[in-house]
C-alpha cells in the first residue's frame, strides 16, 4: 500500500463506505471466509452454517438493520459489506444474504414494529435462521402469479397457509433444506370480508408475505410442512436450497408482515395503497436491495478473478521470441491483454455504478429518508439493469480468467472454477437477467409514476411516456460534474480524438437516446389486438435499449468519480482505464454506430486500433490496477497468483 | 422416428459412419453411460473406471485401432464413437479418450510393430490402463520446450527418464492419479553418439515418446516414480488427473516409441526425418485425432444441452398476454428464440464440418492411406481451428441453455451444469484455443510444405506464402457441389435476397479472403528485428483470420451436405437452418462487412431483421430439429426435458 497511486485509486473505488470496507479487509479472516475444496455437500453445508454463525458473532449480522433495534451502519452499508464478503466463499455469501438480507430484510421492510421487536435481534445474531420463500415450481419470474394461499380465518384469527398444487410448491429456497426454523412465505392473501361468494367465499388481495414457522427446536418439520432438498446444484454447494409445501398450516394473524397491507380488528383487509398492482410492486420495491447486493457481489467476484489471472499472466511464460533467453510473459501478448484488460476496465467502471446505486438506495431507503416514489422507481429500474449487466460481466470475466490460466485455471485450488459455478446462478436469481433488462426498459419507456403492472405486453407498450427525450435530458443535466464533458463533445464528434472521454460519453448518450426513442416510436403503434406481437417482435430492441441505458449510467457514474479526483498520475491512469472501457463498448456495438451515422468506417477502425493501443499502454500498470482493487492477499490463496 | 423429415435430417447429420452411430444409439446404455449426481470424487472415479471397463467389455475399445491387431471400424470411426459417447457422462468420455485415444493412439501411431504386438490387445480390452504424459508444469502450449529427459545409456541399452526441475513435472495427466500402470512419456531424447562434449556429453534429438511403467500390479508407484493427485478440478470429477515425476528411471531402449526416430544397434540416433522441427511436428501430426475428437465431443454435448433447453422452452410458461387463459410458452418469446435457435443452427452447421474433418482424417490416416504431407498439414490446420470454434460454441451454448432454463437449469438433475463444468476444460486442453487459432492462421499464411516450426513470431511471419489468393480459390473450386451456388452469387451481392444461401456463402468467402490477404500484407513487412512486435500487434487480426476461415469451412461443409439432399421438406428446413447460421455469423461481424464495403447499412439492418424472421419461422420446427439430432431419450434424464 505504499504506492500512492494504488492508495488513491483504491480510495476512489471505495467511495462512501470506505471505512466499512477497510474494517472488512482487516477483519474478514480467510480462516472462516474461505472453504476448502473437495468437501462433500453435507460437510460444506455444515461449514457454511458455522461460518454464518461466526459472521453473526463478529457483529456483521447487524449491518443494514434499523439502529433502533440494534442494527448498525444503516441500510445500504449492507450492500457494501456484501461486496466485501463476495471475496470469500460464495456459498457463505449467499447463506449470509439469505439470512440477513432476504429473510431479515423482509421482516424489517415488510414487517412492522411488533415483528421487529420479536425477531430482529435473533435474526441479526443468527439465533433464528430463516428462509425467503417466494419462488414456486411453476412461478419464477412472474411472481404475481404465485399460487400459495394465505387465507384468513376470522373465527380463530389465524391465517391458513396452503400449497394447492404441485406447481405451487416453493422451490430453490435458501436455508430451507437444513437450517431454517421460520420462513417468510409469499402467498395470495384472501379474507372473508366483502366477499361476493366467488373464489370460495374469499376476497383476494394479491401476494403478501407471512411469517411461517417451519421447524421445531429439534430441527424437525412442523405439522403440515413438507420440506424437500434441491440436492446437487451447479454451484453454491454450501447453501441448503430446498422446497416447502404447506398443508393447511395455521399461523396467528400477527404473522402477516403488514407494512403495506394488513387485517384489521374486524377481519377486513386494510391497506394504505388501494391499487393491488401498485401495492404489490411497492412491496417488491422495498426488496430492491437484494438486487443491489447480487450485482455488487458478482462484480467483486469478477475482480478477484481478474486479480488471479492478471497476476498469473504477469509471471507465466510461454513461447519465446527468436534469440530470446526466456519465453515471453503471456500478458505481453496482445491477445492476452485483449482478453483481460478491457474486462478489468469494465470492472472498474461497474464499481462506480455500483457505488452510485448503493448511495441512491441509502438516500431513498436509509433511516430518515423521505418517501420519493419517482426516485424509487428510477432506482428499481436502474438496479434491475445493472444487476443483469454486472452478473453477466462477472460470468464472462471469470470464464475468460479461467481460460487465460490454462490448465492451472481449471484446478480448484486456483479459485476460479468454483467461483464461476457459484456466480452462474446470479444471472437468473433475484430476477432473471433477460426479464430484468425488460423491466429496466419499461422504466425508461413509461413515466415512473405509471410504472405499475408487470411485464406483460400491454404493461410495456400501453403507457409510453410522451416525452422520452425531455426526461433523459433532464436526468443528465442533473449531474453537474459531467456537464463540462458533455459540452466539450457536443457537435464535434468527428474531430474529437478517438480516445477522448467526452467523445465516448457523447456516443454513449446518443446510443441510449436514439435506441430508446426509436423503440418508443415502434411500441407506440400498439393496439389492444396487436400488443403482444408488436412487443415480441421488438424484444431484441427492448433488450438493447436497456443495455445501452445501463452502459450510459455506468460511464456517467465512473466519469463523475473520475472528475472528483485531484489531477495527477492516479487520475490520468483511471482516465485511460475508463477510456478503454468506453471504447470497448463502442467497439462491441460499432455496427450500430455506423448504421446510425454516428461514426464513419474510418473512425470505426480507429476505435479498434485505439483499444489495442490502450491495452498496450495499460499493460505496465496491470498489477497496480489489480492492487488498487483492494482484495486482501489472505483471500487469494491460488498458488498461481502468489 | 416415424416423422420422415426427422429421419432424413438425422441421416444427413449422421454422414458416413451412420451405422456406427445407430449401433451406439442402441447399445450405449444409460445404465453405465450416465453417472448419478452428488458422488464424491473417490466414488465418481471408481465408477468411471468401472464404466471404462464396461465399454471395453462391450468391444468399443477396439474402434479405431489397426485391424491387424484386433482393431475395428478403422481409424476415424473412433471420432464418431467419441461424439456418441459425449452424450453420456463426460468424465467417462475423457477417461475413454485418455485410455484408447491418447495412450492407445500414441502406442499405435508413434510405436512400431513390437509395441503393437506387446500392448494393443491389453490396451483395447482395458487390461493395461495408461497415461499420455505430455504437459509439464512449466510447459503447456509450448511442447517443444518440455524439460523431461530420456537419456540413452548404451552400456545397458536403457533409457533414463528424469525430471530435472519442478517445472518439468508432468501434470494434469489423465489416469495418473489412480489407474495408470504405464505412461507414454514425452521427453527430450538424448544419445551419446556424435557428442561434442556439450550438453553433458549427449546429443539432443528433440521430444520423443517413451513407454514408462509407473505402477506395479498392486497399484503402487514403481521405484523412482513419484505420483501426485491434481485433486479437485472445475469438472470431470471422475477423471483421476495427476502428476508424474521421474528420478533416473530406467526402461529398456525398446520402450522408445520409434516410428519416427529411434536408436540403432550401435547406439546412435536414427530417423527418416532429418529436420528436428519437422520430425517433431510430424509426430504431433499423427495425434491430430485427439483434437478431432475433442471438437466432436463438445459439439455433441452442446446438442444435448440444446435438446434439454428447447424441450423445456417448448412447455414452460411464464407471463400472460392480456386476456389469455394461460401464460405464454417461453420459446414463443423472440428473446428466447434468439438465445437458442441460432445456437441450434450453428450446432447443425458444425456437425457437417465435423463430419468433413473426420472423413478427411480417414482418407489421410486410415488403413492403406498414402502419405500426403500437404493434405496432412491442411487437415491439422483446419482441425486446430475447428476444435477452437466448436469447443467455444459448446461452452457458450451450454451456458445459454442453462440460463434459458432459469433456476431449474441450475439443478444438477437437469444435466446442464455438470456438462458446462466438464466441457470447460475442452477450451484449453488438446491445445489452448487461442493458440490453436493462431496455428490455423499460420497454416493459411504459409505454404503447407513450409509449415514446420511452432508458433514463435518468426515461424508465423517468416514464410508467408506468395499467392494466398490462388491457393484459396483452388481449394474452393475443388468442391464441385458448391460451384453452382458460388456462381449464382458472384457480382450481385446487393440484389440477392438477404436470406439467400449463395449470397451468404459469398460473404463468408469474401470475409475469409480479405482478412487473410490484408493479414499477409501486414506480416510480410516483418524483419528479424521487428518480427515479434509486428506479429504481436496483429494478433487480433490473426485470430480473426483463423475464425473467418473456419467459419467458411463450416458453411461450405454444411452446404455440401445440403446440396446432396433430395429436394423436399427436409432439405428446405435444413436450408433455413443453415441460413440462420450464416446470417447470425454475418450479423456478428456486420461492422466488418460495412467497414469493408461488403454490405451497406440498409442491408446490414436487413440481416438482423432476417435473423429475427428466421427465428420466428423455425420456432414451430424446433422440436423436429431437436429430434433429428438423434440423442437417445434414455440419456436425457433431465426432469424438465421429459
Automatic annotation (TrEMBL), chains A, B:
Name by which UniProt lists this protein: acyl-CoA oxidase
Sequence ranges assigned to domain Acyl-CoA oxidase C-alpha1 in this UniProt record: 285-445
Entry-linked SUPFAM superfamilies: Acyl-CoA dehydrogenase C-terminal domain-like, Acyl-CoA dehydrogenase NM domain-like
GO biological process: fatty acid beta-oxidation using acyl-CoA oxidase; lipid homeostasis
Required cofactor(s): FAD
Gene3D superfamilies xref list: Acyl-CoA dehydrogenase/oxidase, N-terminal domain, Butyryl-CoA Dehydrogenase, subunit A, domain 2, Butyryl-CoA Dehydrogenase, subunit A, domain 3
The organism of origin for this protein: Flexivirga aerilata
Domain spans labelled Acyl-CoA dehydrogenase/oxidase N-terminal: 20-125
Keywords noted in UniProt: FAD, Fatty acid metabolism, Flavoprotein, Lipid metabolism, Oxidoreductase, Peroxisome
Enzyme class, UniProt record, top EC level: oxidoreductase
Broad class of where this protein is predominantly found: other
Pfam families: ACOX, ACOX_C_alpha1, Acyl-CoA_dh_M, Acyl-CoA_dh_N
Domain Acyl-CoA oxidase/dehydrogenase middle per the UniProt entry, residue ranges: 131-249
Family assignment from sequence similarity: Belongs to the acyl-CoA oxidase family.
Location in the cell: Peroxisome
Amino acid at each position: 500500500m505504499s504506492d500512492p497511486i494504488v492508495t488513491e485509486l483504491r480510495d476512489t473505488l471505495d467511495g462512501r463506505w470506505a471505512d466499512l470496507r477497510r474494517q472488512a479487509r482487516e477483519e474478514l479472516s480467510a480462516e472462516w471466509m474461505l472453504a476448502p475444496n473437495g468437501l462433500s455437500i453435507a460437510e460444506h453445508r455444515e461449514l457454511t452454517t458455522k461460518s454464518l454463525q461466526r459472521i453473526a458473532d463478529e457483529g456483521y449480522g447487524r449491518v443494514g438493520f434499523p439502529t433502533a433495534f440494534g442494527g448498525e451502519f444503516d441500510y445500504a452499508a449492507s450492500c457494501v459489506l456484501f461486496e466485501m464478503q463476495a471475496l470469500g466463499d460464495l456459498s457463505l455469501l449467499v447463506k449470509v444474504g439469505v439470512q440477513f438480507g432476504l429473510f431479515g430484510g423482509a421482516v424489517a421492510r415488510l414487517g412492522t414494529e411488533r415483528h421487529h421487536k420479536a425477531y430482529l435481534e435473533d435474526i441479526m445474531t443468527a439465533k433464528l435462521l430463516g428462509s425467503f420463500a417466494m419462488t414456486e415450481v411453476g412461478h419464477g419470474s412472474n411472481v404475481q402469479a404465485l399460487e400459495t394461499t394465505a387465507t384468513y380465518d376470522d373465527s380463530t384469527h389465524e391465517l391458513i397457509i396452503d400449497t394447492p398444487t404441485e406447481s405451487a410448491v416453493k422451490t430453490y429456497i435458501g436455508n430451507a433444506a437444513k437450517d431454517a426454523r421460520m420462513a417468510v412465505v409469499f402467498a395470495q392473501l384472501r379474507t372473508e370480508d366483502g366477499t361476493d361468494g366467488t373464489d370460495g367465499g374469499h376476497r383476494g388481495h394479491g401476494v403478501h408475505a407471512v411469517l411461517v414457522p417451519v421447524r421445531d427446536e429439534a430441527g424437525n418439520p412442523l405439522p403440515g410442512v413438507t420440506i424437500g432438498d434441491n440436492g446437487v446444484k451447479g454451484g453454491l454447494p454450501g447453501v441448503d436450497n430446498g422446497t416447502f409445501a404447506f398443508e393447511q398450516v395455521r399461523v396467528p394473524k400477527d404473522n402477516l408482515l403488514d407494512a403495506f397491507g394488513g387485517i384489521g380488528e374486524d377481519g377486513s383487509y386494510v391497506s394504505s395503497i388501494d391499487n393491488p398492482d401498485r401495492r404489490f410492486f411497492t412491496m417488491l420495491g422495498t426488496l430492491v436491495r437484494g438486487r443491489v447486493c447480487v450485482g455488487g457481489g458478482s462484480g467483486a467476484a469478477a475482480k478477484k478473478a481478474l486479480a488471479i489471472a492478471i497476476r498469473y499472466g504477469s509471471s507465466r511464460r510461454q513461447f519465446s521470441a527468436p534469440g530470446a533467453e526466456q519465453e515471453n510473459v503471456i500478458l505481453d501478448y496482445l491477445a492476452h491483454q485483449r482478453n483481460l484488460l478491457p474486462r478489468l476496465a469494465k470492472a472498474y467502471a461497474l464499481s462506480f455504478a455500483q457505488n452510485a446505486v448503493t448511495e441512491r438506495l441509502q438516500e431513498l431507503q436509509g433511516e430518515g429518508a423521505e418517501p420519493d416514489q419517482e426516485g424509487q422507481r428510477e432506482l428499481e429500474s436502474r438496479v434491475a439493469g445493472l444487476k443483469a449487466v454486472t452478473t453477466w460481466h462477472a460470468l464472462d470475466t471469470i470464464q475468460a480468467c479461467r481460460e487465460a490460466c490454462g490448465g492451472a485455471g481449471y484446478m480448484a485450488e486456483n479459485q476460479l472454477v468454483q467461483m464461476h459455478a457459484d456466480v452462474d446462478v446470479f444471472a437468473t436469481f433475484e430476477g432473471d437477467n433477460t426479464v430484468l433488462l425488460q423491466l429496466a426498459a419499461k422504466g425508461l419507456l413509461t413515466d415512473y409514476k405509471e410504472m405499475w403492472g408487470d411485464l406483460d405486453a400491454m404493461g410495456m407498450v400501453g403507457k409510453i411516456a410522451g416525452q422520452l427525450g425531455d426526461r433523459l435530458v433532464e436526468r443528465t443535466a442533473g449531474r453537474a460534474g459531467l456537464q463540462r464533458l458533455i459540452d466539450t463533445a457536443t457537435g464535434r464528434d468527428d474531430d474529437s480524438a478517438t480516445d477522448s472521454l467526452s467523445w465516448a460519453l457523447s456516443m454513449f448518450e446518443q446510443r441510449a437516446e436514439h435506441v430508446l426513442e426509436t423503440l418508443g416510436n415502434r411500441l407506440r403503434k400498439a393496439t389492444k389486438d396487436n400488443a403482444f406481437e408488436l412487443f415480441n417482435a421488438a424484444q431484441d430492441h427492448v433488450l438493447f435499449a436497456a443495455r445501452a441505458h445501463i452502459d450510459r449510467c455506468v460511464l456517467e457514474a465512473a466519469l463523475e468519480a473520475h472528475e472528483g479526483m485531484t489531477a495527477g498520475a492516479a487520475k490520468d491512469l483511471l482516465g485511460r482505464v475508463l477510456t478503454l472501457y468506453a471504447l470497448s463498448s463502442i467497439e462491441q456495438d460499432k455496427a450500430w454506430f455506423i448504421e446510425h451515422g454516428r461514426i464513419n468506417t474510418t473512425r470505426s477502425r480507429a476505435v479498434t486500433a485505439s483499444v489495442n493501443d490502450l491495452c498496450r499502454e495499460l499493460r505496465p500498470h496491470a498489477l497496480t490496477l489489480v492492487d488498487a482493487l483492494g482484495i486482501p492477499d489472505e483471500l487469494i490463496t491460488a498458488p498461481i497468483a502468489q
